[in-house]
Amino acid sequence: EGIRDTTEKVLRKEVSPMEARDMLRGIVEGTGYEAPAGLEGSIQDLTSDQRLDLIIQMNRDRARGYGRYAQAQATLDEFPFWELVRLHPRREPRDWMTRWVEAGGELVDGKMMAPVNGRLWTSLSAFGTPYPPFDWGSGMGVRRVARKRVEAAGVKVPKQKPKKLP
User: Which of 23, 29, 63, 137 is the most buried (most CB within 10 A)?
Assistant: First the structure.
């Protein structure tokens, strides 16, 4: 609950990520937590800057991804597809093209595009969600694709009903 509350404050820009890190550290330390011997300060230490920053970033990114997915439900007619795109470079990028195909995706004009509400997105996700992020620190995200662009590529746009989200 503390992570959720802190993430919401970051999203509302009530606190900075650095302030959120201190808040979360206080929550974890309040439980009596001690890092495993030899792992102090590592990503496996729940109070390390690296671990807390990851928690904040992933929760923020997941909240934004959910919001983007919710917004996409209102524009399915105009923007029925998403394209998987690299938003941030990585030193060692994963092979997303292979993951795409293994998840059942097909290329449209050489691009990784699929219907917004297609099962592919959940299959692609390490978290089982139909919105980004799709894996830890992937640097990947989605871009809306207009109906005209999809149809111009010769793809039949499937009928999609907006999802009701909690």
Answer: 23
106 close to 84: Cβ distance less than 8 angstroms = no
* Strand boundaries in 10-159, DSSP class E: 81-86, 107-108, 111-115, 140-145
Rounded CA separation 131/92 (Å): 22
Please state, in angstroms and rounded to a whole number, the distance separating the CA atoms of residues 25 and 46: 8
Q: How far apart are CA 144 and CA 140, in angstroms?
A: 14
Backbone angles phi, psi at 31, to 5 degrees: -85, -5
> Token pair 């620190």 is at which residue?
137
Tokens 């989200």 locate to 165
Residue 148: HSE in the Cβ half-sphere, 13 Å Cα cutoff: 0
Read off the pLDDT of residues 49-63 as tens digits, 9 standing for 90 and up: 999 999 999 999 999
If you ran DSSP here, which 8-state letter would residue 163 be given?
P
Sign of the dihedral defined by the CA atoms of residues 83, 117, 159, 96, in that order: positive
What global pTM score does this model have?
0.86
- Give the span between the Cα atoms of 74 and 71, in whole angstroms: 6
Amino acid in the structure at residue 25: R
Express each pLDDT in 61-77 by its tens digit.
999 999 999 999 999 99
3-state secondary structure of 14: coil
